[in-house]
Structures are given as structure tokens and as C-alpha cells.
Amino acid sequence: MQYWEDVTLGKTEESAERYTLTADAIKSFAHEWDPFPPHIDETAAATSAVGQLFAAGVHLLSITIRLSHTVPHEDTSAIAGRGWDSVRFHRPGLAGMVLRARVTHLERKPGSRPERGVLVSRFELVDQDGQVVASFLNNVVMLRRTPADA
């Protein structure tokens, strides 16, 4: 079991799986969750600043989370997510992109209770050319091996 103190900071790991973004997946997700015309209609997308169909930001975040679950790791003492900071969309998610998640653990912070700590990790969604498509800082509450006041 990996506890808060056990996590290696600064190490970057990638998802074992890849996800190929398709036009059908972009439209299907957007129809249900973000029906902005450039996400669901090629004609509307052609007149947008991007010039072609592109994925909704929330779709890209969902792909990142799904792929992050395939980053090799041992069982952890994670309790719950605490929130995301610095959410950024660096480039459009386009049909044909082959995406992977990259996770780097950055910082440990004290938790709200002595037996807990917060791990801050940078999550990135990266395309087949190594370009970052989306990123955010993920804050996860974990159990500590040794409580802070011990």
C-alpha cells in the first residue's frame, strides 16, 4: 500500500493505454454534455476559429481521468479528490489525435486531519506528437503512514 509519505515527487509516468479521438466520439459526447455547435456540427466547426470539429474541454478532461487510471502504480491510500486547479486547454482536441495521460507528483501538503495529507499532481493530456492538449493540478487526499502529530 502506498501512503502519502511514500509517493515519489518529481517522477513523471504515462498511461499504459492510448485513446484515439474520433469525430463520432466528439459529437456523441458533446450532444449529451456540451452541445456547442462546433462540437457537434462540421459546418459550424468549419467557420469557428479552429476551422474543424473539436472536442469539448470537459470531454478532454474526462479522457485524461480515464487514461490516468492506467498509469502503472501500486494500490494507494487515496481517500478522495479535493479539487482541480489551473485547468488549461493548450490546443484543440481534434479527430485523429492519439492521446495519453502523463502524471507528475509535485507536492505534499498537510491534510485537514493529522492522519491525512494532500498530494498535488500535474495531469496532462498529451497527443501523439508529445504536445500537451490539456492540463490541470489534481489534489488528492491520502492517508498518511504516520499521523502528523505522532
UniProtKB/TrEMBL annotation:
InterPro entries, alphabetized: HotDog_dom_sf, MaoC-like_dom, MCH/BMMD
SUPFAM superfamilies in alphabetical order: Thioesterase/thiol ester dehydrase-isomerase
Gene3D superfamilies linked: Hotdog Thioesterase (3.10.129.10)
Domain MaoC-like: 10-112
Top-level division of the source organism's lineage: Bacteria
Pfam families reported in the protein's UniProt record: MaoC_dehydratas
PANTHER family, sorted: BETA-METHYLMALYL-COA DEHYDRATASE, MONOAMINE OXIDASE-RELATED
Protein name in the entry: Dehydratase
Organism from which the protein derives: Pandoraea terrae
Upper taxonomic lineage: Bacteria, Pseudomonadati, Pseudomonadota, Betaproteobacteria, Burkholderiales
